[in-house]
Amino acid sequence: MGSFWLIMGAMLIGVPGATFIVLQLIAQHKRQIMAYEWSSAEVVRRGQRMDELEKLAKTAQQKITELNKQKFELEAQIAKLEKLASQAVAQETNHKTFSIGIYNSEVRRAHMMGEKHRQLDDKWGEINYVELNAASEDEVRRTIMRKFPPERGFVIESVQAVKK
Predict the structure, then answer these.
(1) Whole-prediction pTM value?
(2) Long-range CB contacts for residues 149-156, cutoff 8 Å, separation at least 24
(3) How far is CA 15 from CA 2, 5, 18, 21, in A?
(4) Cα–Cα distance between 100 and 128 in angstroms, integer?
């Protein structure tokens, strides 16, 4: 059926016209093939790039986890050093050791609503005890309020001098 129309077209518009039409049809077919090949190659390339990005994200997440672990270890070491330093200062001066009970009201509120606080651990919903060396209870309260600001939900439950 297609040959019939080509023959009819050749008779009507002549051989040069029919040749032009055939060449246009061939060119259109080639463009479609090239577009398909590009499209499939692009899909493969994008798939490979997504795999690369997933690997990078996984590596970055592992590094973040590792750095957070190191951060917590360093914070624990800092706390130990601060305690040792405050004990040394207390021995040299006439400071007393105080035990401070502190909790975070925002963590408590989140826990009551069945949620987690976005920054602090659940343990801050309970009273945590910290020891501090200072000359007076007022100095203890000032120091604790700097480290654990009330604006962030920290509440000082108790301050008691520790008997040695």
Answers:
(1) 0.45
(2) 152/104, 152/106, 153/104, 153/105, 153/106, 153/107, 154/102, 154/103, 154/104, 154/105, 155/102, 155/103, 155/104, 155/105, 156/100, 156/101, 156/102
(3) 16, 13, 5, 10
(4) 8
Query: What's the token pair of residue 150?
Result: 């009330």
Per-residue pLDDT reduced to its tens digit, 133-162: 888 889 899 999 999 999 999 999 999 988
Question: Which whole-number Å values give the CA distances from 80 to 44, 83, 141, in the listed order?
Answer: 54, 5, 20
Task: List the structure tokens of 132.
Answer: 């501090």
pLDDT tens per residue across span 48-107 = 999 999 999 999 999 999 998 999 899 999 989 988 887 777 666 667 889 999 999 999
Structure tokens at 56: 């990078």
CA distances from 106 to 52, 121, 151 (A): 40, 11, 10
